């Protein structure tokens, strides 16, 4: 459902992505893990049509994002939880999103409930939201059109343990309904709790992919991650 095929991206001197290929199947959560600067956001931005690959292709439902008709009905994106205007209320942000998609206002109330924001909170300006509340709002915004694919950049940032548990439940419900979820993080523990499948990236290259059990190799995901990213650093030093 989500497919990266030999994607490379170069910014002047920096090779942010180097021949990246992997796919995300319907009904699964894929955790996209990598240290700072590994290329995660670049890959997700390319998938969401916000940056062009230097070569290769990234598609959702077989098409590049820009070629999807009514993308909000197919793909939900959360790339920056702080992207919304700080002076707007959470309810206004969702209402504008619903209007753009031609959805009834009743969808706003449904989404608020889905992401656990109260009526009172929804009437406050987003500038006064905690990071966790902004993440919930951003996830709600991504879900407005009931998309079949979700792209989430660092959605666990700022969520407390209850928030992580809530997100795990939400993503489980979505994947049971057939949704494909790609989420990036450098928070290993959170990804381990949430993802069915993991793609590890370092220095713009896919270092490994598989289930948590496969990648843990009996020594834990964290050790695998540290070893692989150190090897990638050494090979490019
Ligand atoms: N617009 C840009 N112009 C120049 N270089 C960029 C640009 N965007 C990203 N880069 C570089 O590309 C590389 C990958 O960055 P990217 O933000 O994709 O990594 P990341 O894995 O998301 O990191 P983090 O976990 O810190 O958010 C970095 O070296 C970064 O400096």
TrEMBL record:
GO terms for molecular function: ATP binding. The lineage of its organism: Bacteria, Bacillati, Actinomycetota, Actinomycetes, Streptosporangiales. It comes from Nonomuraea insulae. This is ABC transporter ATP-binding protein. The keyword Transmembrane helix does not apply. Residues 2-228 form the ABC transporter domain. Pfam families: ABC_tran. It comes from the Bacteria. Belongs to the ABC transporter superfamily. Keywords: ATP-binding, Nucleotide-binding, Transport. The keyword Lipid biosynthesis does not apply. InterPro entries: AAA+_ATPase, ABC_transporter-like_ATP-bd, P-loop_NTPase.
